[in-house]
Amino acid sequence: MSIRVEMAYKSLNKKNEELCGDKVEMLHTDNSHILILADGMGSGVKANILATLTSKILGTMFLNGASLEDCVKTVAKTLPVCQERQIAYATFSILQVFDNGQAYLVEYDNPSCIFVRDGELLPIPQNIREIEGKKINEYRFRVKEGDIFVLVSDGTIYAGPGDLFNLDWTWENMSNYTVRSARSAHSAARLATVLSQGCDELYEGRPGDDTTIAVMKISKKKLVKLMTGPPKSPQDDEKAVRHLMEGDAYRIVSGGTSSEITARILDKPITDEPGPLDPNIPPIAHIEGIDLTTEGVITLSHTLKLLEKYASDEDLDESFYNQLDENNGGAMIAKVLIEDCTHMEIILGTAVNAAHLNPNLAFQLHARNQLAEHLKELMEQMEKTVTITYY
Asked: Are 79 and 130 in contact (CB under 8 A)?
């Protein structure tokens, strides 16, 4: 079994604090993926330092193959229990998933991991062991495609307005909200954003505690094929379309000439999309057997802008996902590539289109090969597997 893993997180700082007292590490080894969430005691600078130290120690030791016992002992010696309050200076959760499907979850005083499988909440078994006086819960299991794991700090529990805890908002409520949200939030990043936004609304925009949601999703393999541009030789038209139609994939045709070629080879008509139009992006069309048919360079340029924003380190919020949900071809392509695609094949025609070289056009048009290479680069930044076949 070879799996693909998505990881993402969102944090809310406690009101009036510049630094978050939670810290997340997302790490990769040669054969595994590691997600660590540490929650420092208190808030602000002190909590941030404690959480950062804890997450860095755990991450570095795990990456170097240290045992849990050694990790906990090192953390215990570095960050002793507060003598006044008799609680740990930092709590943590660790989730390690190996490429062969084996998984290892460790929890120390953080809220329990939210585990969603097949749209249902699965309980995490309690397997408590004591190390250096700390009671650690361990869980070893196998993952399957579609599994979702959400590590949370205690700010997500009892989220409520003002300085009061919301006793009606519990781990169970948060878990049920996660299950509901996961039905439409298909990527780890979107789910983290949706859950964070939900907590922020409960806090009325003024979090009473540092609040962090870290998501790991075991992706189902989904191949997306994108055909754009006519082949250099018309004799290769049929070969390119047959390539597009092979196997189980989500199929996109982008470009007027490419659409005409596809419709001709498939012997299917092209029909226009009814309904309101986006004034900035040409409308989509339909060809039977093709999942999405769009205009070419303008549409793909809009797709690239969305992918660039997603692939960057910008703090994505609900407004970005609203753009991703817009009813235009560029957003539709970007949404599929971000939220559903694990593997991509770009079928790139290399015939020269003189219109793309017109210096009087009001927008900058990329040569198709430059556009495709940039698309490949962005997708690989998102840890997708991409190939380009030239015709």
From this structure: no
H or E element at residue 109: none
| Separation between Cα atoms, residue 39 and residue 197, nearest integer Å | 19
User: Distance between CA 209 and CA 280 in Å, rounded?
Assistant: 42
pLDDT cut 90: percent of the chain above it = 66
* Cβ proximity of 110 and 152 under 8 Å: yes
Q: What are phi and psi of 250, to 5 degrees?
A: -90, 125
% of the chain exceeding 70 in pLDDT: 91
CB atoms within 10 A of CB 98: 18
- pLDDT < 50: residue spans in the chain: 356, 358, 360-366
- 265 burial level (CB within 10 Å; 0-12, 13-18, 19+): middle
Reported residue count of the chain is 391
Q: How many CB atoms lie within 10 A of CB 315?
A: 9
- Structural Rg of the chain based on CA atoms: 24
pTM attached to this predicted model: 0.86
